[in-house]
Amino acid sequence: MKYDIVIIGSGLGGLLCGAILSKYSYSVCVLEKHSVVGGNLQTFYRKDCCFNTGMHYMGSLDKEQILYKVFDYLGVIDRVEFEKIDSECSDKVFIGDKEYSIANGIENYKKRLISYFPDEKNQIENYLSKLDEIWNKTPILNLKKINFNDYSQNNHLENSLIEVIDSITNNQELKSVLLSNNGLYAGNPNKTPFYIHALIKKSFTQSSYRIKGGSDLLAKALKKIIEENKGNVLVNKEVIKINIDKFKAVSVTVSDNSTIYADSFISNIHPSQTNKMIDDGIFRKAYVNRIKNLENSIGSFVLYIVLKKKSYRHISSNIFFSKSKDIWAAVYKDNDEWPKAYMLYTNQDKNNQEYAESATIITFMKFEEVEKWRNTSVGKRGNDYLEFKKNKSQKLLDTVYLKFPDFKNCIDTVYSSSPLTYRDYTGIPQGSMYGIIKDYNNPLNSHLSTFTRIKNLNLTGQNIGVHGILGVTMNAILSCSSVIDINELLENIKNK
Ligand SMILES: Cc1cc2nc3c(=O)[nH]c(=O)nc-3n(C[C@H](O)[C@H](O)[C@H](O)COP(=O)(O)OP(=O)(O)OC[C@H]3O[C@@H](n4cnc5c(N)ncnc54)[C@H](O)[C@@H]3O)c2cc1C
């Protein structure tokens, strides 16, 4: 059998491409190397508690907002329960000894911020208008016609986040609050472009939601949509080779030795992994080396904590903690005083809703910390790795107890993951959280196109443009433009 489109990898990007293209009646086959779909949308259970491995909250999901519109068009809204996070305090931010409740809804956000910084009203308004500027010039987010020849749409790629923030205000405390959700994009003052911050920040400022029951429900809904449109989503199918004939992709070889043919291919995996599947000489050496040498974002160390029953109250907000006003330090400074920052959220106990049944705590971790176990696999890394994780878990917990001392007595069991876990479960090099770093010093090099030299092989996923649910959704729409008329798609989404 020959498909219209084969998609390599069932992360959010691959599944979205599959859902869009199958809705256009193309025959689609998504191939996933693991036994479950979703990549960073996967969840797992410990002692009956469901834990997200990656994505845990998202913005732009109010009815008139962009993610809602795309999900409504695809039929996701009818299948997944998105739970709104309290608009009066979607994020609780701790910076040193100070505490801020961040509201959402643009006007609400602005009002709250001005109440903390009344002398900075103009600066806050200026900041919000700069977020708007970037948002408004991104056609997909506004369901506006895309003109691929209009390069003015890209002239913001080289604006640096730190320079824009420094140009807005001299108030160090305000700067820290503006940057407080750095955990969502691992910002680095020497690299991060303003647009990465602007799009993510604006999306979460519009509205804030989580998926009731776990992020894998989004992956499962997309899989179901593809299957209802007569597509296939096959697990335990690791693609090991993309077969090219006369600069055209013709098939993929799977680890079980099967060959799957298609007219077009979309790769949802890291571009350096995609390149490894293609015979030498097809892509230019310079391109292959460039991709190989692009830096990936920092990885994460995550604690998944089962709490004693009815011991700790559920916190409806996300917690962002930074030891100091230097929010950037957690990403790019040395490992002294690790961890310098963390994100924390609790999961509601289904039977006792005012309590939390579990908590997830995420902090950054460099791959070098676990490099000596790089040749090991899950469950077989040895006792010294387990000891390493135990020490790191304790250090992270000790930092959490500084702000939440009651937490200590509520813990039943602690599980943890390191960048190696992510590398092995998603195939992302070095277990990077957000894939290829976008660098304002080198915007065109680090910002990859969905197109490749092979006309019927396209790329999608978080490595291409912006990461996270919003970025990956935009990238999926762009990737489908190799097969369908993207402006017609945007019009269809708009008119649903
Ligand atoms: C700890 C953490 C927390 C996060 N929190 C949030 C959040 O709250 N909100 C948000 O918006 N974003 C969040 N993100 C980011 C978000 O989860 C990712 O940007 C997004 O899920 C990436 O999707 P993707 O399409 O690039 O695919 P990936 O998730 O990278 O999936 C790729 C898939 O391809 C498969 N694959 C790899 N190689 C092969 C092969 N050879 N053959 C077949 N299949 C293969 C993998 O198994 C995987 O299933 C978080 C990320 C992390 C790590």
Short description:
This protein is an alpha/beta fold and 496 residues long.
Which distinct ligands sit in these coordinates? flavin-adenine dinucleotide
Average pLDDT number: 95
Stretches with pLDDT under 50, minimum 5 residues: none
CATH topology of the largest domain: FAD/NAD(P)-binding domain
CATH superfamily of the largest domain: FAD/NAD(P)-binding domain
- Gyration radius from CA atoms, angstroms: 22 Å
Which structural traits does this protein have?
FAD/NAD(P)-binding domain; 7-stranded mixed β-sheet; binds flavin-adenine dinucleotide; 3 domains; alpha/beta; 496 residues
List the helices and strands and how they pair.
Blueprint: E1 2-8, H1 12-23, E2 28-31, E3 43-46, E4 49-52, H2 66-74, E5 82-84, E6 91-95, E7 98-102, H3 106-116, H4 121-136, H5 161-168, H6 172-178, H7 194-206, E8 209-211, H8 216-228, E9 232-234, E10 239-245, E11 248-254, E12 259-267, H9 271-276, H10 285-293, E13 299-307, E14 318-322, H11 329-332, E15 341-348, E16 356-365, H12 383-403, E17 411-417, H13 419-426, H14 443-446, E18 457-459, H15 468-480, H16 486-495
Parallel strand pairs: 1-2, 1-12, 2-9, 6-14, 12-18
Antiparallel strand pairs: 3-4, 5-8, 6-7, 10-11, 11-12, 13-16, 13-17, 14-15, 15-16
Helix pairs in contact: 1-8, 1-15, 3-4, 4-7, 5-7
Bound molecules: flavin-adenine dinucleotide.
